[in-house]
Amino acid sequence: MQELRSTEILDNEIRAEARRKAEKVLKRAEEECAQILAGVDKRIEQACAEKNEFYAKKLAAFEKDVTASVPLEKQRMSVSFVQTELIKAVNKYLEKLGEEKRLELVLNSCDKAVLNGRQFNAYIYGFDKDKAGSKLESVLGIKPASIVQTEFSRTIIEDDIGLEKNEGIILETTDKSMRCRLTLTQVFAGIMDKYRAQLTQALFDGNVAFGGAQ
Length: 214
Prior knowledge:
Layout (H helix, E strand, L loop, with lengths): L1 H96 L1 H10 L3 H4 L4 E6 L3 H12 L5 E4 L18 E6 L5 E5 H21 L10
Parallel strand pairs: 1-2
Antiparallel strand pairs: 1-3, 3-4
Helix pairs in contact: 1-5, 2-4
C-alpha cells in the first residue's frame, strides 16, 4: 500500500514538473511572439514613415516645378497671343491697302544703291506679273531681263509669319551672283521686330505686357 502511494506521489510530482515546464515554455513563446509582433508593427510604422517622407518630397518637388513654370507659361501664352493679334491686325491692314499699294510697299523697302546698274531676272509671286514689271521700272528704274511667275518660298526659302497675302518679288542678277528679296513677309517681319512694343501699345492700349518686347 505504501508503495502505491509513493508511486502516486512520484507521478503527481512528474506531472507537476511537466506542467511547470510547459507553462514556462508557453510563457517564453508568448513573450517571443509579442516581441515579434512588436517588431513587425515597428517595421510597418517605419516603412509608412519612410514612404510618407518619400512622397512628401516628391509632391514638394512637383509643386516647386509647377510654381516655377507658371510665370514662364503665362509669358509664353502672352507672347503667342500678342503675336497672333498683331498678325491679324497686319492682315486687315494689307487687305484694305490694295494690291498696287502693297506692291509699292515692297519695292520701297529696296535700297536702290544695291541695284547699282546690275541686270536682273525678276521672280514674282502673289502680285500680277505685268503690274509688278511696270512698277519695277517706274519705282526702282530697272527693266528685268525676264519676269517669271513663281510661288511663295519656291525661288528662295522664306519664313511663314502668318500673312494671308504672301506676295513678293525676288530679283536675281543674270549671272546669279546676287539675290534681292522684296516681300511682304520680309517687310513686316522687320517692322514687328523693330516696333513690337509700339505696335502692341497701339493695338492693346497698354493692356498687354510681355517679356522680350523691343
